[in-house]
Automatic annotation (TrEMBL):
Protein EC: 2.7.1.71
Compartment(s) of residence: Cytoplasm
Pfam families: SKI
Name of the coding gene: aroK
Major location category of this protein: cytoplasm
Main EC class the enzyme belongs to: transferase
Protein source organism: Amycolatopsis mongoliensis
Name of the protein this chain belongs to: Shikimate kinase
Residues the record lists as binding ATP: G12, S13, G14, K15, S16, T17, R117, R153
Catalytic reaction equation(s): shikimate + ATP = 3-phosphoshikimate + ADP + H(+)
Function of the protein: Catalyzes the specific phosphorylation of the 3-hydroxyl group of shikimic acid using ATP as a cosubstrate.
One GO MF term attached to the UniProt entry: shikimate kinase activity
The protein's assembly and partners: Monomer.
Length: 174
């Protein structure tokens, strides 16, 4: 069993928004590694960061992603930092991995309204987001099999393009 698509990308790229829409378009179930962590621990992501620190969160995340990759056959969205963990990068090999990309301006705008992302909660979210993109875009590209720019596209437009690319050809279903 293997996910139809795993979605990676920076915070605010739309993984948790596009993922459920893509799953609906493909007729499969959606799952989000952050939701799995919250369900399993009974705590919010910000509480885990604040009380236990980022390394503890990354350990929980690696385990949640490994479990979902092994048992989920729908669309799986990861938290933005998940591909930073070497074990997760190794486990993503061979999967269909969609990199939702977002530029600095749109990324800051989309994440600025929420205090739920502890890594972006500092005094200068724009500088923090720029550093994050500089460090992570090469990592997302390393694991991805498909890349989609999201800045000037609605979630519905992104899903329409992806669903066409990921649809199983009729002859493969027979
Ligand atoms: N393509 C898009 N265009 C405009 N806004 C978007 C787009 N994708 C997501 N958003 C908005 O950006 C915010 C972050 O989206 P979310 O799906 O939580 O991102 P992620 O899971 O990648 O951090 C939400 O308010 C969402 O409605
Ligand atoms: O970029 C990151 O390191 C993180 C992104 C968040 O998920 P989203 O990318 O869905 O916001 C969440 O996993 C956590 O706050 C850490
Ligand atoms: Mg998300």
């Amino acid at each position: 069993m293997s996910p139809r698509a795993v979605i990676v990308g920076p915070p605010g790229s739309g993984k948790s928004t596009v993922g459920p829409l893509l799953a609906a378009a493909l007729g499969v179930v959606f799952r989000d590694s952050d939701d799995d962590i919250v369900a399993r621990t009974g705590r919010s992501i910000s509480d885990i960061f604040a009380e236990d620190g980022e390394p503890a969160f990354r350990a929980l995340e690696e385990e949640a992603v490994a479990t979902a990759l092994a048992e989920h056959d729908g669309v799986l969205s990861l938290g933005g930092g998940a591909p930073l963990t070497p074990g997760t990068r190794a486990r993503l090999a061979g999967h269909t991995v969609v990199f939702l990309n977002v530029g600095l301006a749109a990324g800051v705008q989309r994440t600025g309204l929420s205090s739920a992302r502890p890594l972006l909660a500092g005094v200068n979210p724009r500088a923090t987001f720029k550093k994050l993109l500089d460090e992570r875009v090469p990592v997302y590209r390393e694991v991805a099999t498909v890349e989609v720019a999201t800045d000037d596209r609605t979630p519905a437009e992104i899903v329409a393009g992806l669903a066409a690319q990921l649809a199983v050809p009729a002859e493969a279903k027979e």
